[in-house]
Amino acid sequence: MQQRGFLLILSGPSGAGKNTVLDAARERLPDLLYSVSATTRPRRPLEEDGRDYFFLAKEEFQRRVKAGEFLEWAEFCNHYYGTPMAYITEALEKGQVVAMDIDIQGARQVKEKMPEAVFVFLLPPTMAELESRLRGRSSDSDTAIRRRLHTALSELKAGIEYDYVIRNDEIDRAADQLVAIITAERCRLRHSEYFELLKDIVGEQGVISKDDEPTAH
């Protein structure tokens, strides 16, 4: 029996280390599939369609939005980004675990359409460490960093909406915790899946039907 996969959503403030922790988890779980997004931004050198992104014209992206073909989508810096529903559905039916690194607004869109997904929130060790990480990037102005920190304080409150919370005070430990969550969720079975699993173990005749199940008292 092939167990259906599940979608893993990883969110957290900018600078919390989502990509770093997810990459470390993927080293431990090579079969963990990272979701490929669609975008309208121009393709960069060495990027490959279908591997890095699904590159779409703006008009085609808007058509797919109207057709409801995206699990979630957003506009950023005058370009559209979104997760194709068909891509996720196909991967889940193959039994794959698909990981998505998206912001809180995107996660809320996913929860509306796919509430059975597993939602993980990544916390920074402290706000001081978060500020240090943002400044260490050397890519944002002081004003932009202060804006990101202000946004982070608001975003931290959203962690209560998630199934799991990981504090990223040490990358290996955070990655181990993420792997533990994925392992536990892989062992979670729907009721119907359990009877299919039993058939694999004891054979068709040895499994009681669902109608024969004992009732709870």
Explain this structure to me?
The chain is built from 8 helices and 9 strands. It has 217 residues and is α/β, with parallel strands linked by helices. The chain has one domain (6-199): Rossmann fold. A hairpin with a 2-residue loop joins β5 and β6 (79-84). 23% of the residues are buried.
Give me some keywords for this one.
Rossmann fold, 217 residues, alpha/beta, five-stranded parallel sheet, four-stranded mixed sheet
Give the CATH architecture. Answer: 3-Layer(aba) Sandwich
Estimated structural class: alpha/beta
Q: Report, as a whole number of angstroms, the end-to-end distance.
A: 31 Å
Shape: globular
CATH fold descriptor: Rossmann fold
Tell me the domain tally. 1
Radius of gyration: 20 Å
| Order of the strands making up the biggest sheet | 2-7-1-8-9
Main sheet, how many strands, which sense, barrel? 5 strands, parallel
Strand content: 15-25%
Q: Treating each run of at least 4 consecutive H or I residues as one helix, how many helices?
A: 8
- List SSEs in N-to-C order: EHEEEHEEHEHEHHEHH
- Name given to the CATH homologous superfamily: P-loop containing nucleotide triphosphate hydrolases
CATH class, named: Alpha Beta
Q: How many β-strand stretches?
A: 9
The level of helicity is 40-55%
Low-confidence stretches: none
Short description:
Helix content is 42%, strand content 19%. The chain has helices spanning 18-28, 58-66, 85-93, 104-113, 127-136, 142-156, 171-186, 191-202, and strands at residues 6-11, 33-34, 37-39, 53-55, 70-76, 79-84, 97-101, 118-123, 164-167. Helix 1 (18-28) crosses helix 7 and helix 5 runs antiparallel to helix 6.
